[in-house]
């Protein structure tokens, strides 16, 4: 009933925090920073609790004190000295022309080694190399070449310089004359501003993509570029665009061909000899009598629906940018080998709302969905719960919708309601009590 | 079916006696047996054949007998009547029996004076003190006013807290000590102890009521003390409460004990059931259990003219009869989706309260909350729609929805614990006038996507 739903609204005003706790949505209580022990002691591992919010200003000194304490805490945290240990210093060099062999080395046959003769694994759009890599960051970032230098993609380099873990130098050719036998100490460090200017816009890295990259990276995810990174790339050969859409659609009205179809007709006549069923003028279920509600529902099925499990997988480039997977994301717990990446945990497409103002059309979203592998619901829990099955879907993708620097993520899945004949479970559970009011838990 | 309706009809009359026998105010009236009332998922009769067990010849005979008896005398299917009102583009059912049948079997329509189930008559009787028990509207109203009271109380306690603190601070200043009394300002959790939680109070109240088993004492002094002293919330609702309760004693109590028939005569049911156009067409075309009358000519509108009529009326103002029907008119899109989900066994109801097109209930709204909320987006993949510049522009304007809108809808659904479903409807190119509704519907296609916020914080492992 209507009021039940409204109960849910009101009910959740208190519980909402439990369903959708998104810490980034809340105002920070900076006093908590005082309780954070990482400044002094790295052993304790308890998270501080959030305090109660005051919604209105009141004239008490108490409130004013809380406010000033909070401000002070923030200043303390900001004023805490952040030191870069000289031992951990990592220096990288900007290579605006992409991966090149070290100066003084000549490669006779560049094609033999791939990547302009640097190494097979090195990404062609890498633009920073680190001759002496150390530290945890290179575990899932960058690719090393034949001379043991690690090449970083622009987003990786920008991420590292932004968090203070990398010192990037301008190439020596750009700052001093070539004949100068200048050692590497003479090179000029790159400022953060210069890094942004140099790397954003370099080889397809938009600010939106970088926002998504750095946001997920900070949460501990590992990210890799997906094959659909280049917006200008198009699928070669014949595109599936037109014929595929129809291939996976189920037409409930069409009868099976040949003998099976005839038998089916005879059988349906036998079960209802006075069949007045007519889909042309109605009633669809006929005026005769019905043996069961399941029969009635089966007769009612006449709208063609899309069955995602029948769709053929698409070329990732056979899509319309920006509805294209550009990042593969891996959970922090997923073991990663840089040279042979496992199948990703999440596939992410990045959308700039100021450029793409409308939500995708079916053609765009359908194409994007078909580039992802089939991921049907499985497991014991899914088998039992219809809602969970429907929510999980058969394919899924994540849209990172970036609106002027704010990323909101949407998980979209191909639900296939048509595959779940709800009436069958209903008629089966009519007698059992426990099926009544359960709700799928999140 | 007739049996079911008569049972449901008789149940409210049986109510007063049952409730009277109990102590004055029972904590919670028993819920009606929804499992029994709504045991039929659709307003169509189904007659199961006795099971045939091969090694038991008797079972074969009984099955054959039932089969034969159906051949000889077929059970009749009741067909309800409704009429179409062109002024409001809506379809009304006024027959009480039909209203009950359509509501109880499949949750079709909405009472025009009620929130969803047509319950105006019952509410009116209760208001006049003729019936015990509570309708859902009353329960909600009561709970709302209780909640409001508690919020007022919270506001009061907060205000007291602030005043007390101000006083303490003032005395502290007078004493000359600069520091505020035994202070806990550095510990943000300290304040939570004193804060007033409406939820907790609500639970406490509920528990107390169960323990007391129906003493009407507690509400009196509480409401007096909180009487709009603090202007945090308007006191309008409380006044309303007063007027509604004050009408009860006006009614002669002996009158209630008098015969019901008189009351029925005095109280004319002024409520009718309003069917959405999709529901009506589904009942007519899909199930064949409804006849829609033209109000002026008093003639049944045949299915073949009902569809164009409803399609023209899906615009405002409705399109004239001479206009050509476009394949993407709002009625076709919403009907295709409605029929699709109905045929899978969902109870489909309007989602206008939550800013969506439909809500999908499993079995029905009295059993559980809707789990899914559906929004409909048309899709124009057919090459016809991209042939000319004009058509391309038209299609773009029809398909475009802003991201902000999507986020809004999605956040609302998350707040009410529903999952958002985007249902794309593939629109066929326009065809000539077709009498075959089934063929027309088969040209459309639906594809559902489930949309959920992804919070990277929570999927890390």
UniProtKB/TrEMBL annotation, chain A:
Keywords, A to Z, come to:
tRNA processing
Query: Which is a Gene Ontology cellular component entry for this protein?
Result: tRNA-intron endonuclease complex
Domain tRNA-splicing endonuclease subunit Sen54 N-terminal stretches: 75-170
**One GO term of the biological process aspect:** tRNA-type intron splice site recognition and cleavage
Q: Where is this region: Disordered?
A: 1-22
Tell me its family.
Belongs to the SEN54 family.
**Mind telling me what this protein is named?**
tRNA-splicing endonuclease subunit Sen54 N-terminal domain-containing protein
Query: What species is this protein from?
Result: Penicillium steckii
UniProtKB/TrEMBL annotation, chain B:
Catalytic residues, chain numbering? 361, 369, 418
Note down the stretches annotated as region Disordered.
1-34, 126-149
Instruction: Report the EC code(s) recorded for this entry.
Output: 4.6.1.16
Which GO biological process entries does UniProt record here? tRNA-type intron splice site recognition and cleavage
Tell me the domain of life. Eukaryota
Q: What are its GO cellular component terms?
A: cytoplasm; tRNA-intron endonuclease complex
Give residue spans, biased composition: Polar residues.
1-12
Which CDD domains has this protein been placed in?
A: tRNA-intron_lyase_C
All copies of domain tRNA intron endonuclease catalytic, residue ranges: 331-425
Q: Which UniProt keywords apply?
A: Lyase, tRNA processing
Cross-referenced Pfam families = tRNA_int_endo
| One GO MF term | nucleic acid binding
Q: What does this protein do?
A: Constitutes one of the two catalytic subunit of the tRNA-splicing endonuclease complex, a complex responsible for identification and cleavage of the splice sites in pre-tRNA. It cleaves pre-tRNA at the 5'- and 3'-splice sites to release the intron. The products are an intron and two tRNA half-molecules bearing 2',3'-cyclic phosphate and 5'-OH termini. There are no conserved sequences at the splice sites, but the intron is invariably located at the same site in the gene, placing the splice sites an invariant distance from the constant structural features of the tRNA body.
Q: Which family does it belong to?
A: Belongs to the tRNA-intron endonuclease family.
This chain belongs to which protein, by name? tRNA-splicing endonuclease subunit Sen2
Q: What is the lineage of its organism?
A: Eukaryota, Fungi, Dikarya, Ascomycota, Pezizomycotina
